[in-house]
Amino acid sequence: MIIFIIGLLLIYFDEFYIIESMFLYINSCMVLCVILIDRVSLMFISFVFLISSMILLYSMEYMNFDLNKNRFLFLMVLFIMFMCLLIMSPNMISILLGWDGLGMVYFCLVIFYQSKKSYSSGFVTVILNRMGYLFIIMSLIWMLNFGSWNFMYIYYYFNINYFFMISLLFL
């Protein structure tokens, strides 16, 4: 609820915040750890928190006597953390880390009740996750042409119509 109110305040004052630190420097590309806090990301995160809180409240009662309740709660917190990283990151490296983390945690959640059917469903999610991973890697290679893995750099310094036309090719 607090994040939703902060998002409404950012809409009202038309502000956004960028937290940035250099993580690594490879050849001519800096790998930055960038977190973008704006109205859109806070609105999405508030919905993620709303849905996740309902899942956690339901699972507390549903899994009350389950021995692996703490493992499920840990996996859900990791899922929420990687989802927030994916939402608040305008940097392709952070998006890649968030996507990979989501894929691993999602696989663990699918195979939580360890049976043959859940294992086969888990491997289907791994294969589908790797397809998305392939597109993210292709986007990383494409963004090397611009000298930055940061979406804000491409948005402000290049023709926006060109950027959207190329990004539509990846959808």
From TrEMBL:
Signal peptide: none annotated. Residues 89-161 form the NADH:quinone oxidoreductase/Mrp antiporter transmembrane domain. GO terms for biological process: ATP synthesis coupled electron transport; electron transport coupled proton transport. Its main location: membrane. Its EC number is 7.1.1.2. The chain crosses the membrane at residues 43-60, 72-89, 95-115, 127-147, 153-170. Belongs to the complex I subunit 5 family. This is NADH-ubiquinone oxidoreductase chain 5.
